[in-house]
Amino acid sequence: MSKEKSIKKTNIAIIGSGNIGCDLLIKINRSKVLKCNRFIGQNKDSDGLQMAKSLGINTSFDSINEIIKNPDCCDIVFDATSADAHKIHAPILKKLNKFTIDMTPSRIGKMCVPYLNLDECLKEKNVNMITCGGQATTPIISTIMKVHPETKYVEIVSSISSKSAGIGTRNNIDEYTQTTSDAIKILGGAPKSKAIIILNPAEPPILMHNTIFAQIENPNIAKLEKEINLTVNEIQKYIPGYKLTLGPVFENNRLTVMIEVTGQGDFLPIYAGNLDIINCAAITVAENYAKKYLNN
Amino acid sequence: MQKNILIIDSTLRDGSHAMSHQFTAQNISDYAKGAELAGTKILVVGHGNGLGASSLQLGQSLLSDKKMLTTAKKELTKTKLAVLLIPGYGTIKENIEPAISYGIDVLIVASHCTEANITKQHIQYGLNKGLEVYGVLMMSHMISADLLLKQALLMQEYGVKGVILMDSAGAYLPEDVTKKISSLVKGLKIEVGFHAHNNLGLAIANSLTAIKAGATILDVTSRGLGAGAGNCQLEVLAAILQKMDIKTNLDLYKLMDNSENIIAKLMKHPQVINNVTLTSGLAGVFSGFAPHVIKAANRFNVDARDILIELGKKKVVGGQEDIIIDVATFLKQKKDLKENNCNIESLQ
Q1: What is the pLDDT of residues A178-200, one digit of tens each?
Q2: Which residue in A has a C-alpha nearest to residue B319's C-alpha?
Q3: Cβ of A173 and B92 within 8 Å?
Q4: d(CA B288, CA B10)
Q5: Do residue B115 and residue A203 have CB atoms under 8 angstroms apart?
Q6: How far apart are CA B86 and CA A67, in angstroms?
Q7: What is the DSSP letter of B141?
C-alpha cells in the first residue's frame, strides 16, 4: 500500500499534430503533473494523429471545434498550429477560460521564457513561447545585458536542421524572424537587435546551433564567463541538452557566445533540439501553472 | 539565336561583398547613373546578402538600406530598382515594407536550394504590392536537377515571373549548367535564369551554356565585382552576346565605360581567382565566406584552404559564417595536438 497520495493530473489538450505537437505529446506522457486528454489535428489521416492513437490518446481531427464541443476535456491548451490559426483560436480559448500556451510566433499573449519571467506569466491567460531561437538565446542576452548594460546591439544567428522545421515554421518564417528579433529587445533587454534564421539541409542533420553576438566596448570576459555559466546551469534544469559550446570570446570587436541544443530524441532524433527547447519551456510553464492553480 | 536575354545587374548587390559592404553614396549614385545610361533593365542594390542582411554575422553595411535604395532611385527612370531578400534575414515589416516606400520595382526572393517553401510569404506579399517578383535558388550545385525542379515548381506556384539558379559557390561545370537549366526550362512555364561565380574560371562559359540550354535571364556584375572570385563580367558577356547576335538592348560602350571609369576605380583590388577562392569553388563553399575565412585563418594561424575544405565537408550553407570560427578553432586544436605529439616523440 502506497503512502503517497495519488496526485490527480491536470488535463491538457494539444491542437496541431505537426512536429511540435507530436514532440509535446511524448514529453507530456512522461509528466507527473499533466495528462494529454485530447490530441487534435485537422486531417484524420495525419501521421501525428495515428501516432497519438497508437499511444492510446483521445484524438480528434476537428481542430478548435473539438474544444468548443467538449470544453471540459482540459484546463490547459497548447496551440501548436500556426500564427494565423492562433489568431482565430486565441479569443475562443479566452472565452472558454483555458490557460493557453501558444507555441506559434503569433505574439498575442505575453512572451514567456521560464528562466526570465515564469512567475509573471503564470498570472496571464495566454502566454507566447516566442520561438526556439528566442528560448535559446534570450536568457544569455539578458545575462550579458546585466553585466554590460551599455551594450548597444545584440544579434543572434539560429541554425536549425531543415528536417526539424515543419510546414508551420516554414509558412511562418517571417513572423518567426520578427518575433525572435523583438524578443531580444523585450525579454533580453537589448536596445537594438537582429535575428537571422538559417535552415540547414545537411545530412546527417545538424544540431540546433545558436550564435549570440554583442557589441560591447570593453567586455569583462571573466565576469561574463561566470554569469553565463550560471545561467546555462539554470536552463539545463528544464532543458537537459542545452550546452555552451564556445565563448564568451571577444574577436572582431564583437562578443561571441555559441549554444548548442541537443534534443532528447522523442519525436524527432536528437538533432531537433529546437523542438526540445520550446517544448520543455512550454511544459515547465504548464506544470507550474497546474501546481499553482489547479492541483492544490 | 534570336531571343532576347534579360540581364539583371547585381553590381551594387553582389559586388558589395567585394567591398566589405562599404559602398558609399557617391559610388551608388555614380553607378546607378551609368546603369541607366547603358539601358540596364533591372539594377539590384543593397547588402551582398540582400535587404536586412547588414549584421555582425555577415558584415555591416556602411549605409542603411534606406540610404542605398533612395540614392540609387534618384538616378533611375527607365531602369527598375530591385532588392534581394532572403527569408530568415529580413522581414516584411522591417525590410520589404520600407523598401517599397523607397521606390523598389522588383523583389527577388532567395532561399537555399532545398528550402523554397520559406519564400512563399515574401513572394506573395511582393505580388500583392504590385512588384515584379523573381525567385532564386542559392547554392544550387548542392542538389540534383530533379530536386531543383521540384523546388522551382514551388516558386512558380507562388507566382514568380522567373526562377534563377545561383551558383553561389562557383562550383558548376558547364555540363551541370546544361543539365540543370534544361530541366527547369522543360519543366517550368516561367522564365529561367542563371547567376554564375568565377571560382573555377567558368563564369562566362557557364552563363553562355545557360543561354544555350534555354535560360533567358542572366544575373551578372560589372567587372565581375562580387563575392569570392567574382561573378560573370557584365561587359564581357555583353560583348560576346553581341558577337553571337543575341539581343540585350544594352549599350556596350556604356557598359565598358561604367566598368572602367566607375567600378575599376572603386575596387580594392582586381577580381582574381586566388588560392582561397579557387579552393572555395572546389569545396563548394559559398563565395561570400572568403574574407571571413582569411580573417579566421590569420587569427588562429591555420591554412585558409583547410578551413574551406572542412566547411565543404560540413555542407554549410550561406549565412552560416559563424561556423568558420568553430572550424578554425577545431583545426587549431588539431594542429597544436600534432605539434605537442611531435615534441613528445622527439623527447623519447
Answers
A1: 999 999 999 999 999 999 999 98
A2: A198
A3: no
A4: 14
A5: no
A6: 38
A7: G
Best of A194, A244, A246, A258 to disrupt the B interface by mutation (most B CBs within 10 Å)? A194
Question: What residue spans of chain B are helical by DSSP H?
Answer: 15-18, 25-38, 65-75, 97-101, 120-128, 145-158, 174-187, 203-212, 234-243, 252-257, 264-266, 275-283, 290-300, 304-314, 322-347
| Span A51-97, pLDDT tens digits | 988 989 888 898 898 889 988 889 999 999 988 899 999 999 999 99
Closest CA to B261 of B70, B5, B37, B44: B37
Closest CA to A81 of A96, A61, A99: A61
Read off the DSSP letter of residue A84: H
Find, in chain A, the residue whose alpha carbon is nearest to that of B143. A201
State the CB neighbour count (10 A cutoff) for residue A8: 11
Cis peptide, bond prior to residue B174, ω within 30 of zero: no
Amino acid at A4: E
Terminal-residue alpha carbon distance, chain A: 23
Residue A35 Cα distances to A98, A260, A284, angstroms: 15, 30, 14
**C-alpha–C-alpha distance, residues B204 and B220, integer Å:** 10
**Rounded Cα gap, residues A89 and A79, in angstroms:** 8
DSSP state of B6: E
Global confidence as pTM: 0.88
A132 catalytic? Reply is: yes
Cα–Cα distance for residue pair A155/A184, rounded to 1 Å? 8
ipTM score here? 0.85
Q: For residue A187, give Cα distances in angstroms to A17, A137, A178, A261, B229.
A: 29, 10, 14, 20, 42
Cα separation of B15 and B8, whole Å?
13
Instruction: Write down the mean pLDDT value for chain A.
Output: 90
Burial label for B101, CB within 10 Å (0-12, 13-18, 19+), is exposed
A203, B329: Cβ pair inside 8 Å? no
Classified as helix, coil or strand, A12 is strand
Place of cell 553581341: B242
Give the whole-angstrom CA distance, residue A271 versus residue A242: 12
CA A159 to chain centre: 16
In tens, the pLDDT along B292-326 reads 899 889 988 999 999 999 998 888 776 677 788 88
A276 CA to chain B: closest CA distance, Å? 21
Nearest residue to B15 (alpha-carbon basis) of B221, B178, B168, B159: B221
Cell numbers at B304, concatenated: 585558409
Task: Measure CB to CB from residue B320 to each of A159, A213, A246 and give the nearest one.
Answer: A159
Three cell numbers, residue B175: 555540363
Residue B109, classed as helix, strand or coil, is strand
Distance CA B329, CA A181 (A): 28
DSSP A73: G
The DSSP secondary structure of B227-292, one letter per residue, reads STT-B-BHHHHHHHHHHTT-B----HHHHHHIIIIIIHHH-SS-----HHHHHHHHHT--GGGHHH
Q: Which of A167, A170, A175, A274 to mutate to test the interface with B (most CBs of B within 10 A)?
A: A170
Alpha-carbon torsion (B293, B294, B297, B303), positive or negative:
positive
